[in-house]
Specification:
With 363 residues, the protein is an all-alpha fold. Helix content is 50%, strand content 1%. It has 13 helices and 2 strands; from the N terminus they run αααββαααααααααα. A hairpin with a 2-residue loop joins strand 1 and strand 2. The radius of gyration is 23 Å and the shape is globular.
């Protein structure tokens, strides 16, 4: 690990930590849903949690972000997350109460069990965070950024581009920042829905998302030609996923425009069309966030007439009659067969209801 000529070994260590993060986030979903059920079916921020956009992410004049108002009223469920406003708790009339229901003793046991599971989840989250910190400390001098006097300065909406000795090393750091973003969004105190967690954790993940942009800018060739070398092409392809996780929380129009243009450029240089699909996913999240009042308004820039529905932002309407009378009309196409892979980034509360997580008495 930490050797310049063997980046695959360093990446293997990081991949193992990212696997731990994914496993933890998946297993903790059930506990988070039970915690929401205990709060009346809604996620509630714990005491002391700061809500709202990351520092410096100011909406346009005359347009307030709902998270700022929500942060000033902690007793109520924040409208920043698109939730139904809280109402007073309803009580079932005594005549309709089932005497065979849960007793106060069993309810107390469930509460203690949930508290124990939450404590265990927090301990596991801290252990994974320490593993990421240990990875950062063990990379060695070959994995440090190049000094400013050895590179040509390039300005980006995220700040000066960061350069490393090889593009492979740069992508490893981009993936490291992505792992930090995912880990903070998967904290036990965060909501279960991915997009909601991205908004709540935006203040904590802002610096990692910003570093993703700076590192990715350093991977791009200063004078891009019609093609790239295989190592550089592979690095650019690997850089698309960190841009996806970081891009959904970008608020600045310049950062958003830069992200879309670079993802399109990656598709042009490498032929990796999924890069354009990722750009479309980012634009969808920005557009929906603007309509919900959780960010500045955004207008899609990708071609709405693209043949790929994911890139055009279209939804297929299966209720329409077939266009011809050939046997092709008998073929059913599931429009969500590939889109569902992004539920960990673009997922909302409704997606969790369709996951069909099995109940577990022991959380």
């Amino acid at each position: 690990m930490g050797k310049r000529d063997a980046p695959c070994g360093t990446f293997d260590h990081l991949a193992l930590v990212m696997g731990r993060i994914a496993d933890f986030a998946a297993r903790d979903q059930r506990r988070k849903r039970k915690a929401a059920e205990a709060n009346g079916g809604q996620w509630r921020p714990p005491p002391g949690m700061k809500l709202g956009p990351p520092p410096g992410a100011n909406p346009p004049a005359g347009q307030a972000v709902r998270g700022q108002a929500a942060a000033q009223a902690p007793p109520q469920a924040p409208t920043f997350f698109g939730m139904i406003p809280n109402g007073r708790p309803s009580h079932i009339p005594t005549a309709f109460v089932d005497p065979r229901g849960l007793s106060p003793a069993s309810s107390a046991e469930d509460e203690l069990e949930l508290e124990a599971a939450t404590t265990e989840a927090e301990d596991e989250w801290k252990a994974i965070k320490q593993a990421l910190q240990l990875f950062e400390e063990s990379t060695g001098p070959d994995y440090q950024p190049l000094p400013p006097d050895r590179v040509r300065p390039v300005s980006t909406p995220f700040g000066p581009a960061v350069y490393y000795k090889t593009s492979s090393i740069a992508v490893i750091w981009s993936l490291y920042h992505m792992a930090q973003i995912i880990l903070h969004r998967a904290h036990p105190d965060m909501p279960a829905a991915a997009m909601m967690a991205a908004g709540v954790a935006a203040g904590q993940t802002a610096r990692f998302a910003n570093e993703v942009g700076r590192v990715t800018a350093g991977v791009f060739p200063l004078m891009p030609g019609p093609s790239v070398t295989p190592p550089l092409g592979g690095a650019l392809i690997e850089a698309t996923l960190p841009l996806f996780f970081a891009g959904v929380q970008y608020q600045d129009p310049a950062q958003r425009g830069w992200t879309v243009s670079k993802l399109q450029e990656i598709a042009r240089l490498t032929g990796w069309e999924s890069s354009v699909a990722i750009a479309a996913g980012c634009e969808t999240s920005w557009e929906k966030a603007g309509l919900a009042g959780r960010g500045p308004p955004y207008t899609r820039t990708l071609n709405p007439l693209a043949h790929d529905d994911r890139m055009a932002g279209r939804r297929r309407d299966d209720s329409r009659p077939p266009k011809d009378n050939t046997d092709r009309r008998l073929v059913t196409v599931n429009a969500g067969t590939r889109v569902h892979w992004a539920v960990g980034i673009l997922g909302v509360e409704e997606d969790l209801e369709n996951l069909g997580l099995e109940e577990n008495r022991h959380l």
